[in-house]
Description:
The protein is an alpha/beta fold. The protein has one domain. Helix content is 37%, strand content 30%. The strands form 3 sheets. It has a 3-stranded mixed sheet, sandwiched between helices. A 3-stranded mixed sheet has the order 5-6-8. Strand 5 and strand 6 form a beta hairpin.
Amino acid sequence: MMLSKYAEDLIFSKEVNIRKKYSNSELKLFNYFYEKTGGYFPENIIVLNQFVFFFLNPQDYFFLSKYIHKIRKDFNSTKVLFIRNEEKLIKLLFSFFPDTYIHDIQIEWIESSDERRLSVEKILISILFLSYEDRGIAVGKKGSYIHTVNKLFSEYIFIKNAECPIRIKCSLDQIQMAI
């Protein structure tokens, strides 16, 4: 069910929470990041699949971005990403796709039933791009990046005061399809 613009705005303005228990390797990454950046700690670190997500204070993000190439060199087969640790859902979504032009974002509320006939609610966020290139960057090779982002949102990132899961989908906007 597509939501009204007002309902979308309410969801996008919701605060998000990142819940994480740290493993020993992630605690070592905190120390590594501190040493590599000369005294800055990330606000959160999540290692998932072949990705390492460093969640940074938004005020420090652009300053710390100059270190990403040095850090990526130290991680051979692992993809390293700096994400702005935003409090609002809409800003956090944009920070997961920094190298792309996002044309629009839409929300659908999905209700379905499981095998026990219980109603299951989920938020489907469609991120719309104008080019196949931008969509390809957002999805990643064989869909690896978008699958990892969806796993992050299902296991670690939650909307405050709403425990329904979020799923993200990347598509081309209908404007592009008509051209």
